[in-house]
Amino acid sequence: MKSVGAPELRENKLQYRSANLNLYIYPDALVEDYLKLCPIDHTWMGLSHAIRDKLNSEFQIPEKLRSLPGKLIYFSLGFTGSSVVELMKRMMSILSKSKHRFIIVKGQFLNDYELPPNMWGETFVPQVEILPFVDLVITHGGNNSLLETLYFGKPLIVL
């Protein structure tokens, strides 16, 4: 960024703050508590959410999972987490022992490991369309996953 004239970031800072306008996207109920501890100035504007639109794919629970017993759990570690094949293999091994069913976001290394019988997954799945069907979400805590899970009122485990 320095090569195009941007100033250096301050130590331990990951983003620039504008003197004119800064945006945050988080539910009002969560922001209220944060602001009690860390007030922000007039340059900040909040948006209560940015829930993605459905893709109109009319997602249905895969036949493979429909006939199995147990709760339906959505598992996503985001682009980066799902790219660590050994981590995904280990998590699938652990979750395979569960009596529950899982929808897995496998990420870009889709063909590098097999899913156990209680799981179904793809490189990408329409998260906003799946969330209404699930009983629990296990995620890395990315912004979209967190906000969309809260939006649909689902229990959440953040790894």
TrEMBL record:
Residues 123-158 form the Glycosyl transferase family 28 C-terminal domain. Gene3D superfamilies: Glycogen Phosphorylase B. InterPro entries: Glyco_trans_28_C (IPR007235). Keywords: Transferase. Pfam families: Glyco_tran_28_C. GO terms for molecular function: hexosyltransferase activity. It comes from the Eukaryota. This is Glycosyl transferase-like protein.
